[in-house]
Design goal:
Largest sheet: 5 strands, antiparallel
Radius of gyration: 21 Å
CATH architecture of the domain at 38-139: Beta Barrel
Number of strands: 5
Order of helices and strands: HHEEEHHEE
Shape: globular
Structural class: alpha+beta
CATH class of the domain at 38-139: Mainly Beta
Helix content: 10-25%
Number of helices: 4
Length: 154
Amino acid sequence: MNTSFSFEDEMDLSRFNTLYKTEAPSDAAPVLHTVPDGRYEVVVAEATLTKSQRSGNPMIRYVLRITGATFRDRIIRKHSAITENTIRFVRKELEVCGLQLARFEDLKSRIHELDGVQLEVVKVTKGEDSNIYFNRSLSAQSQADGVADDDLPF
C-alpha cells in the first residue's frame, strides 16, 4: 500500500493566509528547552545508518529517550560520524551497547539490534557544541558474561 501523498494535492492552506499575517504568536506555545548537561538513563528509541548532509560520510543517528525520573520521556539525539579518524569511538559506542561485530560492514544488517538498549549517558556542552557520551549499558543482555543479574545464584 502506497501511503505517500502530495500536500499540494490534499490540502489547501491558503484560507489561513490572512490569519497567519494578523494573528500574534501565542504566549502559550511551548518553548523548546534543551536537556541540561548531566548523567541520564536512556533507552535507544531508534538507531539508523545515514549519511552526513555536509560531508557525505556515513553516520549512526541515535534517538535516545530519557527513562530516568528527571526529564523522563525527553529526547536526546546523537550523531556519530564514521570516518577513519572516528572509527575507534564508534566501535566503543557499539561495544558499550553490547553489539559485537565480526566485520564492520555487518552493521548495516544489525543496526536494529541497538533499538531498546538501555544506557547511562553523559551530556557535555562546550561552547555551542554538545556531545553525548555512552558510559555504560544498563541492559542485562549486554553484560560481558551474558548472565542477567536475576540469574545469579546469590
